């Protein structure tokens, strides 16, 4: 298995790297400080094809393979994790529509999602159903040619800013996976409102809001896939999302490592740069090894998905290892800079605040370990 980039992949990575350095990195600190969501940036990314990475060419997309997509997310995250997470969720919505939409739904939403006219959001979690997502209680009551939706959804990335929401709601009795249906719900529908903007530790430039449904009437034609198959649709989106989060974690860790190396080469104490001290050298060496190991795990999971083989366990491994690694690397990066790492003159405190949530969303890392162990044990039988 080789990860030498072909010419197209190298060109895409270099294009995204230049864009990040010019349009994202210089603004990331102020976006974070002001909790500002730069919607105009998404139009710029759409012009590069990045909002259509998961969409085929016939609806205006690029349909990048998973490995190339991982390269994109890694490069963007070196500039700002918040923006990259919002983009990743948008592309998760687009990719899910590509796999499950009928022709009418495909033509109605995919071209506008791919060209950036519309922004997407994905909604599974609720206040009482996080890791136990199948216990969700947002209810969709069947009507003659529609569904009446009541309930709330929580922790929705792009909430309030997005135009198209994939919402999992219970359309029949029961508490488990059976009976959950996926609905395509548009901003502005009667009975669909938003809660307050969540005040988060990090990812300030990526809006997170509660979705509130009060007798929201959704046409039956807005059901995505088969009625009662919504939980399977949600799970199908998570493997790709986990690979993307792993790639994002690698990008953030690489950014933190780059700052640490530069600082260690310049900062002088006791008459020498601190990079000459063995204690710092060992920290940098460990950081570099962990980043490279995580990068390869992410690439392997992406490669397996591109080959069409079962990759759920590898996606969980990549997400879990890479995000734990990035938390460790950003923490050590702050330590290397000392007091300078703790203040906002340097981006490390932002990297550290942002990356924490990567161990929580797309399935907590404790859940990932359960999934990995289950897959390993099942393979013994």
UniProtKB/TrEMBL annotation:
Q: Where is the Acyl-CoA dehydrogenase/oxidase C-terminal domain?
A: 228-377
Query: What PROSITE patterns does the record tag this protein with?
Result: ACYL_COA_DH_2
> Is Magnesium one of the keywords UniProt gives this record?
no
For molecular function, the Gene Ontology terms on record are: acyl-CoA dehydrogenase activity; flavin adenine dinucleotide binding
Which top-level group of life is the source organism from? Answer: Bacteria
Keyword list, A-Z: FAD, Flavoprotein, Oxidoreductase
Q: Which residue intervals define the domain Acyl-CoA oxidase/dehydrogenase middle in the entry?
A: 121-216
Q: What is this protein called?
A: Acyl-CoA dehydrogenase
